[in-house]
Protein: DUF1273 domain-containing protein
Amino acid sequence: MSADAGLERIGVTGHIYLTRATEVLVADALRAELRRIGGGPVRGVTCLAGGTDQIFARTVLDLGGSYEVILPARDYRDAVIAPGQRASFDELLDRAVTVVHTGHDRSGTAAFVAANRELVRRVQRLVAVWDGEPGCHAASTDRTVDRARRRGVPVSVLWPAGASRTPPGAH
Structure:
């Protein structure tokens, strides 16, 4: 049995497209929230999407914790992660203690929904970096928050003062 087997699993969901300044604000907010709810090193659960998920993974590591990754589809890295962000994605994926695949071959809404469901199923708590706006598809942050709340998973919503999103095409 590993030393961190008994740690509470804390999942993350949140926006992908964040301004550079917001990325710093989110990292600070996540650090404070993980310290508040974890009390020490934590076991994170993430899909390693750009933005929130990768900031979360790095913050968990900075705090001495570890994380599990749920990959939505076999083609996720090449289909979803921007070429300029793949080295960072690969590094974070290599540092995961566990990698789980949903079984989907191709990335898309169905695969993302499956990954979010698996994430919520695995965690005792969810942290959402969310501006409170409804999403436009079944795998949006608001849907994952709703799913967690329906399952009785406590949810912390973080959206630091001054935070903002960038349009999807701006990256």
Q: What stands out?
A: The longest strand covers residues 66-73. The chain has a mean pLDDT of 92. The two ends are 42 Å apart (CA to CA).
